[in-house]
Amino acid sequence: MNKIIYTILCSAVACCLASCGGKKGGGETTGKDTVQVPAFNADSAMASIETQCAFGPRTLGSKAHEDCAQYIEEAFTALGCEVSRQEADFTLYNGQRFHGCNIIASYKPDLEERILICTHWDSRPWADNDPDPANHHSPVPAANDGASGVGVMIEIARVLSQNTPSIGVDFVCFDAEDAGLPEWDTTFRGDEQSTWCLGSQYWATHPHRTDFRFGILLDMVGGKGATFYKELFSQRYADSVVTLVWAAAKSAGYSSLFPDENGGAITDDHLPLNLIADIPTIDIIPYYPTQEHSFGPTWHTLSDNPQNIDPNTLKAVGQTLLQLIYTY
Ligand code: AHN
Ligand code: ZN
After folding, report:
1. Which of 63, 120, 267, 291 is the most buried (most CB within 10 A)?
2. Domain range holding 91?
3. Which residue's C-alpha comes closest to atom 11 of ligand 1?
4. What confidence tens digit (pLDDT) does each residue in 193-214 have?
């Protein structure tokens, strides 16, 4: 068939699907073809966040931690991913030792062309930024700072299982990101930065594979009023990935949540991936320019609960990632 007529026909069919379907994420013209990007369902990501939080705070050594690890493994397995648990021993800033695990879920592990999407799944043991000092030793519910990234990744895995993409994806849930030096400990002498991100430090020195085009870290991707500025280490180590993701956000219609602005420099799980595993990895992390704390009002407080998650934020991040995956 004549190529021009074929293209017009494809476009017409795609337009019809878009207008009749109503549930699709939106069309994307790549120059050759019109690709229909499937829709990210924020309600199902939200349901996963509620499930995770219902176990209780997922702090190292707790029953909630073990229960949630099982839930995460089962959720990715049910969606057709190959799942494994990477067990590790972690030593906290205070010398306390815990057994824990990174959880690895591979979608189509045989595909060579693949990307890494990751987040942390543990809860901070101490709400040391809570407005009430009486809560500074209580664990954080971690709806945003823990469950949100996992919820978005599980929903992406569901979409992959129903709409075959041309690339493979590995999802990695890092443990022990958030047991770093609490603000109330004034006796610690040493390198504070290395007390954070213990699971990703372990994974970066024992990666299950490293042949990824790039990595994307999700951290606190469900907060009300969140905007995602370009984090500094992401630009330093993986600027082309920043450009790709911010362009995908624009194509998906979310440029207002992904402004072309510089954020802070954040010590997070993407640093070991860039510096140790040599995988160019960016951090999608909120920056609240007008709030007292740049991570937002619920950060490391007891208010980091599902009620303070906005499904619209989850949607913007999830749809941006699908835009990237299905137009890659
Ligand atoms: C520090 O504030 C040192 N790191 C931020 C990383 C983080 C904590 N992400 C979530 N909780
Ligand atoms: Zn945290």
Report:
1. 120
2. 27-327
3. 178
4. 999 999 999 999 999 999 999 9
